[in-house]
Design a protein that fits this description.
The chain has helices at about 1-75, 170-180, 185-190, and strands at about 120, 125-130, 150-155, 160-165, 195-205, 210-215, 220-225, 230-235, 240-245, 260-265, 270-275, 280-285, 290-295, 300-305, 310-315, 320-325, 330-335, 345-350, 355-360, 365-370, 375-380, 390-395, 400-405, 410-415, 420-425, 430-435, 440-445, 450-455, 460-465, 470-475, 485-490, 490-500. With about 500 residues, the protein is of the alpha+beta class. Strand 6 and strand 7 (about 220-225) form a beta hairpin. The chain starts with a helix and ends with a strand.
């Protein structure tokens, strides 16, 4: 009797279980249908968004072309054309809003126009998301007050503008007030200084995001790093000189493998590249021979730089360390890390011109200074409110420049170990910085798609250049030369020059 009751109970339980299982299967099918519908609608919206963006871009290009032609005809007719030439507002193009999308599950750069790169993963699990041309102005103004928007167009895809920021006054007192660190003689010199304007040279298209770039010592050769590609170009003509292939394959051969940093040796005979394969490879520039591969980092490498004497290289990695490598012995001379160093991924390294000091920046917002010979920590700069993404020493080694995801640039006094100036102008992440033109000018690039020029003598912004259709991820400068370059998420590398008025 009891066994019959037990069997009945088990049968009831089984029926209930089967009923619940049937309901669950039904719900699962419904969820599958809803997910399929959602994906289809999302894909349709994405396609529509892209189509609208392309139409808007073409419309703006046509408007700009008509405006330029009207401007030219007015000049021919002798009519006044004092107003600045209308420009295409790249920042309002709908398709460019894709900059702000990110794939939190990926640490790689996406294709152009798709999700842009997530550069580094913080310790707390949050992701830092990264964004993923020109002819000479037709006239030069002799007066600094007459600086305005210069616009030139080669084609619908190759357009740029440079807006120069005029001074409120040119008298010595105002100049001295703007740059309180100047002496009276320096202020007088500044008040009569002829400021340069920028003209554009070659514009070089790439197949993917231009993540890294470097100019050789005389500015004649440009190296770029992209997805699985390292190329060098003639900086005057844009012609390809050589292409280098990474010897260390990615873990997934068909996957992305972005080159995050490239650097020429001081004598321009060797090129080093750091990529997402945790290694640094060095080539002979002339023969394309792979000379050595440095291994030891446990995560992707984001920055590499040669010492001025060519005796060693320094690298910075997401593993929170910087390493100093001997070129002669090919060994790691020193590993900089631990509790007294960067507490998050290292984003940028810089070596002082005399090769005595190493600066290390990271996602933890702090910049550390180290004595290269002894490994002793010299000090730290703490002032940015978000990750420091790029640093550079001034040509005289007295100042350190930093650019941060807080949209600020800061100048630091290396000897006094204190901040000297804050440079504010970018409207989004500052991704790359450098010194140019004898160290008198600072060049910066950011997620706001602009390249900006700053006067180091006054700590003031001089010009805003718009020539990229996406984030300006990389900047290359030659401190002694009147040339610099920019690389963007639009897959384009551009070379710019300073011209005296």
């Amino acid at each position: 009797m009891q066994s019959n009751r037990l069997l009945n109970l088990l049968s009831s339980v089984k029926q209930e279980f089967e009923k619940v299982e049937s309901v669950a299967a039904n719900y699962k099918n419904q969820v599958g249908v809803l997910e399929a519908n959602f994906k289809r609608q999302y894909d349709e919206m994405k396609l529509l968004h892209h189509t609208v963006g392309e139409l808007e871009r073409r419309h703006l290009a046509v408007v700009s072309a008509y405006a330029a032609e009207i401007h030219r005809l007015r000049e021919l007719a002798g009519e006044p054309v004092d107003a600045p030439l209308p420009t295409v507002d790249l920042e309002s193009t709908p398709s460019m809003l894709l900059d702000n999308q990110s794939d939190a599950g990926s640490l790689n750069f996406g294709a152009i126009g798709e999700n842009m790169p997530t550069a580094l993963l913080r310790n707390n699990g949050t992701v830092i998301t990264l964004p993923p041309t020109a002819t000479k102005p037709t006239s030069k103004k002799s007066s600094r007050q007459n600086h305005n928007m210069k616009t030139k167009k080669r084609s619908n895809d190759d357009q740029w503008t440079a807006q120069y920021i005029p001074r409120s006054s040119d008298n010595v007192a105002d100049i001295a007030n703007e740059a309180s660190f100047m002496s009276a003689d320096e202020a007088l010199e500044q008040s009569t200084l002829t400021l340069p304007i920028v003209s554009a040279g070659c514009s070089i298209p790439h197949d993917s995001v231009v993540c890294a770039m470097a100019l050789n010592s005389d500015g004649s050769t440009l190296a770029t790093g992209c997805n699985r590609a390292i190329k060098i170009f003639n900086a005057d003509t844009g012609a390809t000189i050589n292409e280098f292939e990474l010897s260390t394959p990615a873990s997934t051969p068909s996957g992305d493998l972005y080159v995050r940093s490239v650097a020429f040796s001081a004598d321009s005979t060797k090129l080093a590249a750091a990529a997402e394969n945790k290694a640094i490879e060095v080539w002979d520039v002339a023969t394309r021979e792979s000379l050595h591969i440095f291994s030891g980092h446990t995560m992707d490498i984001y920055s590499v730089e040669w010492s001025s004497d060519g005796k060693f290289l320094v690298s910075g990695s997401g593993d929170k360390t910087a390493r100093i490598w001997s070129w002669e012995t090919k060994e790691c001379l020193r590993e900089i890390g631990g509790m007294d160093a960067a507490q998050d991924g290292v984003t940028s390294v810089a070596i002082s011109p005399d090769s005595s000091i190493l600066a290390v920046a990271s996602l933890d917002k702090v910049i550390f200074l180290w004595d290269i010979e002894t490994g002793k920590k010299l000090g730290a700069f703490n002032g940015h409110s978000d990750a420091v993404y790029s640093i550079a020493f001034s040509p005289d080694g007295k100042s350190l420049l930093s650019g941060s995801l807080d949209s600020m640039l800061r100048l630091w006094d290396v000897q006094a170990l204190k901040q000297s100036h804050v440079l504010q102008g970018h409207s989004d992440y500052v991704l790359s910085v450098g010194y140019a033109y004898n160290g008198d000018w600072i060049v910066s690039g950011g997620k706001d798609r602009t390249v900006r020029l700053w006067d180091t003598r006054t700590a003031k912004q001089h010009a805003v250049i718009r020539g990229h259709g996406n984030s300006v991820i990389s900047i290359a400068t030659t401190p002694s030369m009147q040339r610099f370059a920019s690389g963007g998420g639009d897959g384009r590398a551009r070379v710019w020059t300073f011209d005296e008025q």
